[in-house]
Amino acid sequence: MGQLADCRACPRACGVNRLDGRWSACKTGRYAVVSSFFPHLGEEDCLRGWNGSGTIFFAHCNLRCVFCQNYDISQAVPARETTDGSTPEEIAAMMLDLQERGCHNINLVTPEHVVPQVLEALAIAIDGGLNLPIVYNTSAYDAPESLALLDGIVDVYMPDFKCWSAERSRRYLMAADYPAGGRRAIPALAPQGGALRGSGRGARTQGRLLP
User: Fold this and answer.
1) Are 195 and 43 in contact (CB under 8 A)?
2) Is the pTM of this model over 0.85?
3) Is 180 in a helix, a strand, or coil?
4) Contact in structure between 92 and 128 (CB atoms under 8 Å)
């Protein structure tokens, strides 16, 4: 959790003390803000299987995409929720609930700014019996330090890379350094994920999905 004290959890590197409840670009302090969690039947075929991907949507993505398809549950979350958030125990309970409902994996959506909180919750969930593959569903605006923490924990990486132009990234994502961040982040995933492997019945269990 030390990564949050002088926050460098994502490439924005705001430097605020999120352990003290402070926040900057991601509007997320000590606790992650979960907008929704459910068995997602609209994900890629190799993830949703027949019971759905156990999707956990984290609010306040560290990008500001003008074309965001999840705006209502990402950027438009009421400000009052940013001071509350979900405790690690609550997020762990969500994971275990999704497993109980027959989901094929735990699918973490826009987790770039809450990697320490995710790891905290996963430790509790695993102690509670979680044994599903973990999907890291990212916009590819990740800090290498955060990705290093996930080595050996994430089973499937799904970077949703958007554009190579710094000017277009500044205009449409509000992050001119997005392409540079992607050039660092995506190659870091390859040695972690390896080749895609499946269960033989339509659901992926390990590997990486390229953008």
Assistant:
1) no
2) yes
3) helix
4) yes
Residue of 34, 192, 102 whose CA lies nearest to 206 = 192
> What is the C-alpha to C-alpha distance for residues 211 and 48, in angstroms, rounded to an integer?
18
Give the pLDDT confidence of 9-29 residue by residue, as tens digits: 999 999 899 988 888 888 888
- 37 has which bridge partners? 56
Inter-residue contact 110 to 139 (CB < 8 Å): yes
Q: Residue 189 CA to chain centroid, in angstroms?
A: 14
Tell me the torsion sign for CA atoms 161, 166, 171, 173: positive
For strand 197-198 and strand 204-208, is the pairing parallel, antiparallel, or unpaired? antiparallel
Got the DSSP string for 72-87?
HHHT-S-GGGGGT-B-
Side-by-side strand order, sheet with 197-198: 34-40, 53-58, 106-109, 134-138, 156-159, 204-208, 197-198
| Residue pair 44/96 in contact by the 8 Å Cβ criterion | no
Which residue positions in the chain have pLDDT lower than 50? 80-83, 195-196, 199-202, 204, 209-211
